Amino acid sequence: MRNEISRLFREEVLRASPYHVGSAPAIRVKLNQNENPRALLPPTENLGGIVSRVEPNRYPSEQPDDLRLALADYAGVPPEWILVTHGSNEFVHSLCLSFIERGRCALIPSPAFSLFRNSVHLFGGDVVEVEATASFDIPVEEFARTAASAKPHLVILPCPNNPTGRDLSLSEIESIVKSTEGMVVVDEAYWEFTARPSAISLLHRYDNLIVMRTLSKAFGLAGIRVGYAVCNPDVAAELLKVRLPFMVSRFDAAIAIDVLRRPEAVQTAASELRIAQAQLAGELASMRGVSVVPSDTNFVLFTTPLGSRDVLDGLAARGVLVRDMSGYPRLRGFLRVNAGTEQENRDFLTALQAVLAD
Ligand SMILES: Cc1ncc(COP(=O)(O)O)c(C=O)c1O
User: Fold this and answer.
1) Centroid of ligand 1 to alpha carbon of 284 (angstroms)
2) What whole-number distance in Å separates Cα of residue 208 and Cα of residue 226?
3) Where in the chain are the domains?
4) Cα of 16 to ligand 1 centre, how many Å?
5) For residue 223, which phi and psi values (nearest 5 degrees)?
6) CA atoms in the 13 A half-sphere facing the CB of 16
7) 114 lines ligand 1 (CB under 6 A)
8) Ligand 1, atom 5: nearest CA belongs to which residue?
9) What are phi and psi of 219, to 5 degrees?
């Protein structure tokens, strides 16, 4: 870009990189973004009704009341404790806009979902990282000590974590919340796959806590972009000030409400995916030279005796897409695969066996 043009951009923007997932031609089996292989869509006969009721000529409200109510019901809190978001990625920007500026820092475990770090930098903040242990767990005591000493304004605690798949116990989460005066955001994107009580149960004791959730994983709605935060109403009132109006479309809200009214379907889908993930991890671990990180989610992090790029390309050539995690310094050689349908999991395992035998 010409110099005169690039100088118009903020330094943080020029330094940043775009979020890039990568794709491959002719993919039949897509297991690279921790999605639910099945949308939990309303029955086809209801979809027509939803489409005809949405009134696309009217703006939605910033916090659609009926969606807020349905989310509150699902999360077991009063509606004032719910903030509807356009998915967690968007909400991370709202968090940074609220808590981060030059001279402030955020505390994040490493490795963790790269968007956290990138967003903090984009808003001019510094990132303090605490390295995971050899088993990829967040070292709770060290993390809490750093939270106390580094004085972060924002602490992002993904539980379970992506890309490691490792979770913390509720008491470990609480000990971190207690250790800091910063705002702790527990990212429970994969919570439905765990057996742990939600950090929502801590909210009545700690004002410096926000629980961030999404309908992109267990709910199978990554394509419609709906998430939510659960927090003290005073915190929600401040966060509302930084949000752009009308981020959740009427159509997205209507679909989300329909699925939220069927929590048993979500629970069944989550436990089926958990079982599929455990089988996938077991099959992977039984392959020669393959090692697997135990996971509390719908995905598995693993290594093979080959380079991760070669495995990625070999699988792609056989129509299977997984994620190469080598961009994370600690994860050179690692790949991540999420549980798909039974057939997709079989296709992935067969393709991997062929790649490793080549
Ligand atoms: C830990 C974690 N948080 C948040 C997200 C993003 O969720 P959303 O689709 O709601 O933006 C992801 C997506 O992969 C994730 O892994």
Assistant:
1) 25
2) 24
3) 20-39+264-357, 58-261
4) 19
5) -75, -15
6) 20
7) no
8) 88
9) -75, -10
Q: Which of 130, 229, 228 is nearest to 180 (CA)?
A: 130
3-state secondary structure of 95: helix
Q: Residue 222 CA: which ligand 1 atom is closest? A: 9
Please list, residue by residue across 260-296, b when 16 or more beta carbons sit within 10 angstroms of its beta carbon and e when fewer do: beeeeebeebbebbbebbeebbebbeebeebebbebb
Cβ–ligand 1 distance for 214 under 6 Å, the answer: yes
Q: Is 222 in the pocket of ligand 1 (CB under 6 A)?
A: yes
CATH architecture for residues 20-39+264-357: Alpha-Beta Complex (3.90)
Q: Which residue among 214, 248, 297 is best mutated to probe the pocket of ligand 1, counting the most ligand atoms within 8 A of its Cβ?
A: 214
For the chain, which ranges sit under pLDDT 50? none
Q: 177 and 204 in contact (C-beta within 8 Å)? A: no
How many Å apart are CA 296 and CA 193, to the nearest integer?
7
pTM of the full predicted structure? 0.95
Task: Ligand 1 pocket test: pick from 113, 211, 212 the residue with the most ligand atoms within 8 Å of its Cβ.
Answer: 113
CATH entry, 58-261, from 3.40.630.30, 3.40.640.10, 3.30.70.370, 1.10.10.10: 3.40.640.10
Half-sphere exposure of 294 (CA within 13 A, CB side): 6
State in Å: Cα 107 to ligand 1 middle: 18
- Residues of the chain by 3-state class (helix, strand, coil), percent to 5: 45, 15, 40
Pick the atom of ligand 1 nearest to 190's CA.
Answer: 1
Could you tell me if 16 and 121 are in contact, meaning their C-beta atoms sit under 8 angstroms apart?
yes
- Ligand 1: does its nearest atom lie under 6 Å from the Cβ of 220? no
Q: Please give the C-alpha separations between residue 156 and each of 60, 221, 273, 331, 347, in angstroms, as whole numbers.
A: 30, 23, 26, 20, 36
Tell me how far the alpha carbon of residue 288 lies from the centroid of ligand 1, in angstroms: 32
Phi/psi of residue 82, nearest 5 degrees: -110, 135
Computed from CA positions of residues 298, 302, 304, 306, in that sequence, does the dihedral angle turn out positive or negative? positive
For residues 200 and 204, give the distance between their C-alpha atoms in angstroms, rounded to a whole number. Answer: 8
